[in-house]
Amino acid sequence: xxxxxxxEYSKRxxxxxxxxxxxxxxxxxxxxxxxxxxxxxxxxxxxLRPTLLILSSRIVGGNxxxxxxxxxxxxxxxxxxxVHDDVMDMDEFxxxxxxxxxxxxxxxxxxAGDLLFSKAFEALLKLTDRNVSYDRIVKSxxxxxxxxxxxxxxxxxxxxxxxxxxxxxxEYFKMIYKKTAALFExxxxxxxxxANAPENIVNALAEYGRKIGLAFQIQDDILGIVGEExxxxxxxxxxxxEGKKTLIVIYALKRATQSEREKLLDALGNRSISKEGxxxxxxxxxxxxxxxxxKEYAIKFSNEALGILDTISTEDAEAKEMLKELAEYVxxxxx
Amino acid sequence: xxxxxxxEYSKRxxxxxxxxxxxxxxxxxxxxxxxxxxxxxxxxxxxLRPTLLILSSRIVGGNxxxxxxxxxxxxxxxxxxxVHDDVMDMDEFxxxxxxxxxxxxxxxxxxAGDLLFSKAFEALLKLTDRNVSYDRIVKSxxxxxxxxxxxxxxxxxxxxxxxxxxxxxxEYFKMIYKKTAALFExxxxxxxxxANAPENIVNALAEYGRKIGLAFQIQDDILGIVGEExxxxxxxxxxxxEGKKTLIVIYALKRATQSEREKLLDALGNRSISKEGxxxxxxxxxxxxxxxxxKEYAIKFSNEALGILDTISTEDAEAKEMLKELAEYVxxxxx
Lengths: 335, 335
Known about the structure:
The structure is a homodimer of 335-residue chains.
Chain A: H1 4-25, H2 31-42, H3 48-59, H4 64-89, E1 93-94, E2 97-98, H5 100-104, H6 106-125, H7 134-162, H8 169-194, H9 199-226, H10 229-232, H11 238-241, H12 247-255, H13 258-267, H14 275-287, H15 290-310, H16 317-332
Antiparallel strand pairs in A: 1-2
Helix pairs in contact in A: 1-3, 1-4, 2-6, 3-4, 3-8, 3-16, 4-6, 4-7, 4-8, 7-8, 8-9, 9-15, 9-16, 12-13, 12-15, 13-14, 15-16
């Protein structure tokens, strides 16, 4: 399956959403702060979440134009999490550019993230200009707020796992649901709600979004180990350096011999590990079958998402087709 | 004028609002994150902003019960700004307890602040349980979001002023409007809006709130120089150490002789200045009349706020009386 239709459409969405974000929402003073806040947005990104939101509107009979403020809200919220994440993880590159705190310093990066957070709500509330009923706007704002809380909980779990070596798969799945999949879920739900979808369809799309989000995060973890640095836009191996407990690492720790386990534990969280050290760990993870294991899970979630889509009937066949492509894309992407 | 009625009422408000915040909003996992998020709230605080919001509802005929979720939202948003501020300013004490990042570290403090931010919106949106119409909830959410953006802008200005010695009074007033007074204004506006006040009354209360906020911040700057450390709950002189450009400092720099100016500039932003050094600067500021000058401005804003209140007629004389007391309290408080 190809996903050329999806990628082309997401470019169009990016154009519309970026214009809305940069011309109508992320405008103000001091200039310095707004430069810092828009830095990652201007650096590119796939705009997958806004595309997902708009397609979720379309599949239930809504239109692109009405959904733009909500799509922008989701993308801005996503960028807020990236700015603060990079501070917390001390990451220096993202989307092939230096991170916000590397350029403007930690205090400005914290405020820039905070500003994006409030701007996400400002963007969403511009739905009032697009004839969406107040009760559906309130419902959407509730989802956005709860999702932001869920993401914060996920980040805290992710960080606390860095200190532990006994994280279970169950804990991992709960964490990536919160950290990543909840926002995909929110995109599908809000997209459907503002297009007046009935509750059962909102719920089906929510589940589809959740599954794609889980697949997306597992693929992200895989790319963090075996991706091409130039494509991924950040250093390979940073998950190892930071001691992240990805599904790959959890599986490997379970399957490793005593000496392999020691080698792994030495590398995890070792911020001064060499490139060769990372290569050795990547080989070990491959040998233990940990990457294949994670890949199988990503495929499983992608298939489940496709299965859910099959149950939804629509008059917008193109939107449905692109949502199918999206379920494929999240596990086949190389960046 | 005494403000015993106000202080007694704010204790009752604190009880109701704290219960709502801690039992209905700030509940979740991981426990560590929720402990960090509620740390400053549990440490006390005057609950001035929620009290202001509820009184603004009451003066236009609304009631306390309905306003609780909005009052909680304002207080939670306020606490979010404190947590991130303390990280940015590297402050170690607030409300007489160690700051969040001193106990849990910077990454957890960042997430704890982020969580409070989303929880502020979650709290506000619980107005749906209290029979407030959806359009007024949306209006309130818009104010909350815009105010949060304004506060971020104010923080950025405040920080950038630390590097400068030529900050004007005009810039200072713009900055404290954004950093502090905007939230007081938001409290009065939201309080009035959810109680169905007509637009002209909402605007009058907004101006009252803005004036009180300005007076409050100037008094805060004064207490930062001549307050009692035990009452204020944080080290005296930290504004000097951080190089903050308060009205006091701006006025003093303008009035100082060349040698006094040099002494002042040496002290501003000097993080290792001694207690004696701070005492010398306080004496200099007093001698130059800078503290009296700031005090006059605080009194002026308080009087203007009282003048606005006079134009508002109400059936709730007690609420009006307490709002008068509040205008006095913000400039007479010693903590």
